[in-house]
Amino acid sequence: MLLFSACTKEAGYYKEDIPEGSIVMKNLTPQRVSDDMILEIVEISDTRCPIGTVCDAGGEVNIGFKAYVNGESSELSICFNEMGGQECSCLTFKGYTINVVKVMPYLFADKPIESIDSYSIEIKVEKAQ
Length: 129
Known about the structure:
This protein is mainly beta. 0% of the residues lie in helices and 43% in strands. It has strands at residues 22-26, 31-32, 37-46, 61-69, 72-80, 90-93, 96-104, 120-127. The chain has a four-stranded antiparallel β-sheet, with no helix packed on it. A four-stranded antiparallel β-sheet has the order 2-3-4-5, with no helix packed on it. The relative contact order is 0.24.
């Protein structure tokens, strides 16, 4: 007997309701964010200035996502800067606007973040206008 597994994720396989408003993603779990899109966090690079240190720049968080739309997957990258004024926390993809609202936890100088699983990313996904 041979078994084959598919490498794609179909939004139709996920039966849960699509959350309204902001969505909190964590634990590298794929999350259905629209009728035809699933997002999965695959990488986080956090260069924010830790609380308890002095930095000359605030830094940012770069988030790598894998997006599954209608059986096709794509790699996406969004940066997030809490200081505002930068448009990097938003991108348009396949007719949707994906906006990073918040990245937690915040870095502390004496308490390093142990793994990518420790992060929660709050995003908002809307139809692009």
